[in-house]
Amino acid sequence: MSAHPMPRSSWIFPTLAVLLFIATSIPSLGIGFTETTAGIVFAVVLLVILFGTVFAAVHHAEVIAHKIGEPFGTLLLTLAVTIIEVALIASIMLGDKAVPTLARDTVFAVVMIVCNGLVGICILVGGLRYREQDFQVTGSNIYLSVLIVMATITLILPNYTLTTPGPFYSNAQLAFVSVATIMLYAVFLYTQTIRHQDYFVADGSSEGAAGGHVSNRLLAISAILLLVSLLAVVLLAKKFSLVVDAGIERIGAPEAFAGILVALLILLPESVAAISAARGNDLQKSINLALGSSLATIGLTIPAVAVAAYALDKELVLGLSAQKMVLLVMTFVLSMLTFGTGRTNILFGLVHLVVFAVFIFMVFVP
């Protein structure tokens, strides 16, 4: 990595994000979101800077991960993305308008975007270029087994509990489920990075060890810029929530659309990397990035949001509607068939994209 200079965007966007937050914090400047032409321009600038800062944060996390190796590299990447996600969800949930379903909608959107949209694009892109692509069935089955359990106990089971009427968990139930998901994710990380690392590496390739090509100077700069990027996203999350609320109200979109926006913002950097890997005939890496992000979202975001909701005495709705549960179950059944052979083609990718299209359509026309 040190052979290439640090991209300018990796320090420009965090700097712009900090400057934008400072500017909006000075009342006399009058900079902020309003439903005027100037306010719309501010919203566009905010979204561009926010997206750029998220990309910068992921870039710096990858630089550090390359240097420190596994399992700490994977954990660092996961924590960086999760901090951003929790900040965005909490800022909208704690806004002027209560959105108790946002965490549920975001997690569900992540699963549907990843398991249908991203997986479908990766398989289709790879199939068009290479006809067929191979991957490790054992590793994919591990991903799916953990993902199915996590999604079921966080998104479906709350509808069928007796202690409290659905779609809620009682405090005791929410605490138990949060601990269970964290434990599942921790054991999964241990399995992926230490115990059975070979399950998640394509045949004929080898997992890179800690990289010695990252200089200590670059490592220090990336560590500082990573902290700045994460802090900037957290500080701008409140401004983002105002833009999302106003945008949804103006276009008349359902509340679930906010969850999709947050999910897209969080998944964009990893999605670009996954599609690039598929184009490079490394579908295994695409699967690792895609399904791994789903596990991290449920395993870490739900417990973090649960703690925030309990501490601030906020309502947290987790159970999905019957329609969404059908889509979730169909997604898991389809994923088991897709990843059950170790070989993919364009038809698998197209089927996943059709399910993703159904998901998006049903958000607006339920």
TrEMBL record:
Pfam families: Na_Ca_ex
Keywords recorded for this protein, A-Z: Membrane, Transmembrane, Transmembrane helix
PANTHER family documented for this protein: SODIUM-POTASSIUM/PROTON ANTIPORTER CHAA (PTHR37958), SODIUM-POTASSIUM_PROTON ANTIPORTER CHAA (PTHR37958:SF1)
Gene3D superfamilies reported for this sequence: NCX, central ion-binding region
Protein name: Ionic transporter y4hA
Domain Sodium/calcium exchanger membrane region: 40-193, 222-364
Subcellular localization: Membrane
GO molecular function terms listed in the Swiss-Prot or TrEMBL record: potassium:proton antiporter activity; sodium:proton antiporter activity
Keyword Membrane among UniProt keywords: yes
Record membrane topology: Multi-pass membrane protein
TM annotation in the entry: 40-60, 72-94, 106-130, 142-160, 172-190, 218-237, 257-277, 289-312, 318-339, 346-365
Record GO cellular component, one term: plasma membrane
